[in-house]
Amino acid sequence: MKRFITALAAGILMLSGCSTMRSETADVDIQSSTAVIITHVHIDRNGREVTVHGSLRPKSAAVTRVGHVDVEFIGASGLVLETVKAETNTQQFSHKSSRSPTFSATVEIEGFDTVRLIHHPDTLQQCEL
Fold first, then answer.
1. What is the CA radius of gyration of the chain?
2. Measured between alpha carbons, how far is 38 from 30 in angstroms, rounded to an integer?
3. Fewer CB within 10 Å: N-end or C-end of the chain?
4. Cα–Cα nearest to 57, from 17, 21, 101
5. Which residue ranges form the domains of the chain, and what is each CATH number?
6. Cα distances (Å, whole numbers) of residue 42 to 86, 94, 108, 123, 127
């Protein structure tokens, strides 16, 4: 029964496009868009320098633009300490390649508990960053 409830909760999170996971460094809140899924997220810490990187996967073959990922560092009080735009290694999904597009952002920051990743599906769309 416990496995069923865990599987049900995971399915609901996947359908909603939002998930939360825990890394050794911080909690990770993933907010995928309706077009693209954020996967393989890693957080590397070297002193004050923090690097967040991961992969992007289209939800359908009709999706061609990669878009971008905003990375928010959130403190224990729930306040956003810093927001950065993660750079992607390509702007288009290639259905001929087996390699997924990746994103990465590096900042100097301390005192955060959660990293929130928000995918924006179109780089032509205006974003506050």
1. 15
2. 7
3. N
4. 101
5. 17-120 (2.60.40)
6. 13, 23, 16, 23, 24
What ranges in the chain are assigned the alpha helix state H?
A: 2-16
Secondary structure (DSSP) of 69-99: EEEEEE-TTS-EEEEEEEEES-SB--TT-SS
Q: How far is CA 107 from CA 24, 48, 83, in A?
A: 18, 8, 10
Q: Which residues of 85-114 are buried (b: 16+ CB within 10 A; e: fewer)?
A: ebebeeeebeeeeeebbbbbbbbebeebeb
Token pair in block for residue 3 = 């496995």
Identity of residue 98: S
Q: pLDDT per residue over 65-119, tens digit each?
A: 999 999 999 999 999 999 999 989 998 888 777 789 999 999 999 999 999 999 9
- The whole-model pTM stands at 0.75
What tens digit of pLDDT does each residue of 26-47 get? 899 999 999 999 999 999 999 9
Question: Are residues 68 and 123 in contact, defined by beta-carbon separation less than 8 angstroms?
Answer: yes
